[in-house]
Specification:
With 102 residues, the protein is mostly helical. It folds into two domains: 42 residues; 60 residues. 89% of the residues lie in helices and 0% in strands. The protein is built from three helices and no strands. α1 packs antiparallel against α2. It starts with a helix and ends with a helix. The model has no long low-confidence stretch (mean pLDDT 90). Belongs to the SURF6 family. One of its GO terms (cellular component) is nucleolus. GO terms for molecular function: DNA binding; RNA binding. It comes from Dentiscutata erythropus.
Length: 102
């Protein structure tokens, strides 16, 4: 939107008639789009607000995803620890069984 405004100002300085025609064509195209029911996104305040909202959602999503990964890693480590403990108890039980036999 800023680039469009800058280009228009540059054109206005170089050729005012062409700039006026361009502005009129844009106005007509916006009017036609509104008549067709399309949404025209040219309000800078709303665009900034939307961008800010999108960035906020991205950050919150990233935060929740990191928390989820952390929780999954923690659960996996706990399962692995439990598994190794169970394997060790089985090994110890086998050793004790062999000692009792001999």
């Amino acid at each position: 939107l800023k680039n469009k405004a800058e280009k228009f100002e540059k054109l206005k300085k170089e050729d005012p008639d062409k700039a006026a025609k361009l502005r009129e064509n844009e106005a007509w195209s916006k009017a036609l789009q509104k008549a067709q029911g399309k949404k025209i996104k040219d309000d800078p305040k709303l665009l900034k607000k939307t961008i800010k909202n999108i960035n906020f959602k991205k950050k919150s999503s990233e935060k929740t995803w990191k928390e989820r990964i952390k929780a999954v890693d923690k659960a996996q480590a706990e399962r692995q620890q439990k598994r190794t403990a169970n394997i060790q108890t089985r090994i110890d039980a086998k050793k004790n069984k062999k000692r009792k036999k001999s």
